[in-house]
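LAB NOTEBOOK - FOLDING QUEUE
OPERATOR: T.R.
BATCH SIZE: 2
PURPOSE: Compare the predicted structure-token outputs for two unrelated chains run back to back under identical settings.
PRIORITY: normal
REVIEWER: second-year student, initials M.K.

ITEM 1
FIELD SEQUENCE / FIELD STRUCTURE:
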Amino acid sequence: MVNKISFNFLKLSTLTVLTAISLSACADNDQLMRETVAARIASPAWMVDRQVSAGPYAITVYERMHEKGMPANIYIEGDGAIDEPEALNVFNPTPNNPVGLHLASRDNAKNLAYIARPCQFSGLLSDEQECNQEIWANHKEYGRAEIDAYNTLLDKMKARYGVTSFNLIGYDSGATLAALIAADREDVLSLRTVAGEFDNIAIAPYKRQLRNIPQLHLSGAQDTLNTPEHTQSFLQFIGQSACIKNTHIQEAAHFAGWVDKWPEQLKRPLPTCEKSLNDYEFTPYTPEEKPIYYPRMGGLKK
């Protein structure tokens, strides 16, 4: 009887180990497939991948930098697999369909880079800590650590390639991160968002800075995840500004309808930020002091 129990326990233990190995192999294969998809998107656009240490993260970047002394277009990915409809139980935030990378691959700019989010395609710098769900799921709090990490990454990019400034493009929740970075830096020329998810609480301290940055927000009329009404709510929250425009793309949904149209959308002119009367600060008029005239005594001199 004891031998039978021991044998059954051994079978159960072996099955558990084999299941764990099988799941691990599946996870590795799944990650490899996602990385292969990204490489196939980036390669025809001559975008090369590398990992950049920034804060606690090793952030994956696909980039093409050809011209010093010029701006760079920076694409920031969204939530990735967290939002994808087929991913109900997500253990890996690396996107199966990296829309931000798709958009970057259709951009003909001399200097451009696609920046993944923490734990997408890569992990943490410390081998003692895993890039688990507790870490990457909390990135939507948009804490100072993540903003500082991206600022560090952009500073390293400027030093490495000699670019002067940045045009930021944020997809999905990358829109909020791009807005926070734009408000936090002095070298951001413009902000564009695509199917943006906006966290008004995180953005609230930066409302005034954002009003002075040229920006264009694109929303899809068929998007049921981040609806056009969501974008409109963000614009009302920021307040009226000559620097801000928004446009609805009739055929676009959240994950579809953007890539083929992107070269055309890039041609849309950004606002010129011409100030309205409400944008000027009121300075009260102070008359200049003039010397007091004292008339000569004794009449006119002849």
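ITEM 2
FIELD SEQUENCE / FIELD STRUCTURE:
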Amino acid sequence: MTEQPLTGGRLTPGVVRIGDTVRRPAGPHSPFVAALLQWLAERGFDGAPRHLGSDDQGRDVLSYLVGDVPARFRTWADAQVRAAAALLRDFHDATFGSRLAEPYPVVCHHDPGPNNVVFRAGVPVAFIDFDFAAPGDPLEDVAYLAWTWCVVVGPRRPEGAGGGGVDLARARVHRQPSPQLHGCSRRRRRRAAMTSRSGGTTTPAAAMRRRASRRVRRMPTSPIAHITY
């Protein structure tokens, strides 16, 4: 069957569609991602592809999720941001307390931006590209979501000055109380943002999380978008 290159996910080159499946180059992350997707499937979480094994080229085989994946950042409606936050919360709830999350509360996606989300009829319905998934504090993902979904792309310099810029939309995140996610201490949040799941080693994913957290902290406090998580 014909291989159709796919766009959207920003981290893994060589992703193609064959029929109703997606083929992704395998890597060190593959066993963890396979276990995670299997766990999510067993718990009825529909916001992620299913892991179907490997093909004769050693690539990971996933189910294809029908929908659209945006190629670039853009302005999102409040309803879309709320839907993305609800999807993220469902993902965290599905992994809370699992062996995959140890020693942290949940498994984090660590890149839940709009470029890694499948939309149907303009509504976020599923995450893709779990290469950076790892145990962590849920607020790591919440901070990253608040940054990447509340971005307004447009020129900031005077016309003719060249280049472009990014205006960070002002966001206020309202975290709903949950018996599953209660008790995440500040110390654990800091440690989770600084270390990988292997224990103590700073990784590109950890660096990305630190940058996202700093950007969110610099946001003005007057809200434009309200995210309920």
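REVIEWER COMMENT (ITEM 2): Confidence is low (pLDDT under 50) at residues 154-171, 189-202, 215-224.
FOLLOW-UP: none requested
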